[in-house]
Structure formats: structure tokens, C-alpha cells
Amino acid sequence: MLSTSLNRMRNSPALRTDLLVIGLLIGLDIAARLQPHAPDFTPVAATALFAATLLRVRALAILVPIAGMMLGDAMLGFYDWRVMAAVYGTLALPACAACCSDRLRRPLLIVPMLLSSSLIFFLVTNFAVWAFSPLYAANADGLVKCYVAGLPFLRNMAEGDLFWGLVLFGGHWLLQSIRAAKGEVPAAETVALPVRS
User: Which own/partner pairs from 73-77 qualify as long-range (CB within 8 Å, at least 24 positions apart)?
Assistant: First the structure.
């Protein structure tokens, strides 16, 4: 019975499409991180949210930020595992949140989700840097200095999340609109991204 279900899932065109999308998004995350860019101006949080919105098997969306970061860090270099855990966890948060609630995948909530993920990333990762690295004094003054030093990174992260969110969600909408104009998909599917149960 279990092997029949696994074979059916393995042979599913929807699963193959999901795996292709996952591979492309992970590739985008890695390529963007390896190219010269402003610090934290990467697509990782946006690809996580996009995957959770688009994939039919939403639970697979968490693979996108985790695999993208791990493979990228394997090439760029790893760092303190406690800080890495904070980074990976906060970058996976948009995928987790969107998987848990249909409301969070609505088009009107994409920008607030991306901006809130940038802010959460800033708060959690700067706290982790303060707590687990010798760069800052282990007192309130050191914590404040750590957050102040991180402000330019917050700006880059927010701008990167919004830019990559526009590229991914806008690109998807544009492709769906073109397909609808050609009669390949019903026009109703182009109004919003699909919300899968």
C-alpha cells in the first residue's frame, strides 16, 4: 500500500513540476549569492515565500531556502553553527508561515510578508551575532551597537526581498497572463497565484 502511494507520487506530473521549480529556485539562490551583490541583497526569503505559494506540495517549500543556503555556504564558507541556525531558520520562516496559513499566501500579503521576514531576520540574526560572537560586548551597550551596525544590512535585505519578490511573483503573473492571452490557461487563473490545499 505504501509503495503504491510512493510510486503514484513519484510518477505524478505535479510532483515533477514541483521538483523542477524547487531546483530552479535553489539554483537562483546559489547563483545570486555567488555573484557580487550588496550584503544581504539575495532572493532567499523571496524564493521561500514564492515556493510556499506556488508548489502543490507546500511542505517541500522549506527545501528551497535551506538547500540554497547550505549549498551556497558550502562554496562560500561556513561560520558559527549557532549563527547559521538563526540565519537558516529566519530565511525558512516565510515558507513555514505560508505553508501554515492560506491567508498568508494571498497576493495582498506578499509585500507585508517579505518586509516582516526582513525585519525578523534582522532582529534574530543580529541578536545571534551579539550572543555568539566576540565582536560585541556581552551587555546592553554591545547589543545596541550590534543592531546599529546591522541597520545597513536591514535596508539591503528589505530591498532585496522586495526586488526578488517582484521578479518572482511579477514574472509568474506575467507568464500566466501571456498564457491566458494565448488561450493556454483560463483567465481566472491569472488573477492570483494558485493557493493549493
Answer: 75/30, 75/34, 76/33, 76/34
- pLDDT, tens digit only, all 197 positions of the chain: 435 544 555 668 888 899 999 999 999 999 999 999 999 999 999 999 999 999 988 889 999 999 999 999 999 999 999 999 999 999 999 999 888 877 666 778 899 999 999 999 999 999 999 999 999 999 999 999 999 999 999 999 999 999 999 999 999 999 988 988 888 765 444 444 544 44
Indicate the burial class of 100 (C-beta count within 10 angstroms; 0-12, 13-18, 19 or more).
exposed
Report in angstroms the alpha-carbon separations of 51 from 64, 112, 142, 188, 193: 7, 17, 37, 21, 11
